[in-house]
Amino acid sequence: MFFHLKLKGNRLFAAINMARLALLTVVFLATGCTSVRLIDSQVNSFAPQVIAAGSSYQFERLPSQLADPVNQARLEKLAEQALGKVGLKRQNGSLLRVQVTAVQRQENTVNQSGVGIGWGLGWVVGHGELSVGSRGTLLPWLETQTSYWRQVSLIIRNAAGAVVFESHASHDGIWADSDAVLAAMLDAALQGFPTPPAGVRRVNIEIPN
Questions:
Q1: CATH entry 2.60.120 includes domain 9-208
Q2: What are φ and ψ of residue 136, in 5° steps?
Q3: Are 34 and 209 in contact (CB under 8 A)?
Q4: CB 202 within 8 A of CB 40
Q5: Residue 38: beta bridge partners?
Q6: H or E element: which one contains 59?
């Protein structure tokens, strides 16, 4: 049978209600329960020279970035928005030159955590699965978890080629929409500009869900 019925009366109804609650909880967690999400980045910044507010800059590309102009242009657009928030403006021919890079690594892991419940009904919630009786997993897509490790770097040089600002931000999370996450990470990398705190720090940025 679909259920292994071993309980009677009130206990049976309680078990069924508990199972329903477990299913609703899993679906609720899967679909998200808030309107915002937190992008927490590890940031490390260096500012050997203070950049004046309102300074202009132009992007400079590495040879590898010249070979991938479409994705690099998207990244530079995100960086332009972040730099604008700290008072810098993009302008061709400017003395300040900005290099922006981003790397991403994707990893799929099996979810090993969870709790089994059911009072003999055969419900199993956890270990990456939700099953009823002997019919197998109801939501097989919960068995694996995809995570994304990303890092962005911003380097600003003056006319002589000396680095006047450098910042790196890294984040490990489950969000697949790279542009939204990278935008938040760039904001984190520029927190405190033009005189950011020394040392590695955690910067939290909230973005829409």
A1: no
A2: 90, -170
A3: yes
A4: yes
A5: 206
A6: strand 56-59
pLDDT at 92 over 70: yes
pTM of the model: 0.70
Q: Alpha helix (H) ranges present in 69-150?
A: 69-85
Q: What is the pLDDT of residues 39-49, one digit of tens each?
A: 999 999 999 99
| Bond before 194 cis per omega within 30 degrees | yes
pLDDT in tens, 186-200: 999 999 999 999 999
| Residue 110 structure tokens | 């099996």
Identify whether the C-beta of residue 117 lies closer than 8 Å to the C-beta of residue 110.
no
The one-letter code for the residue type at 201 is: R
- Inter-residue contact 79 to 154 (CB < 8 Å): yes
pLDDT digits (tens, 9 = 90+) for 7-41: 455 555 454 455 554 444 444 454 455 689 999 99
Contact 104, 75 (CB under 8 A): no
Q: Which residues of 130-143 are buried (b: 16+ CB within 10 A; e: fewer)?
A: bbbeeeeeeeeebe
Amino acid at 42: Q
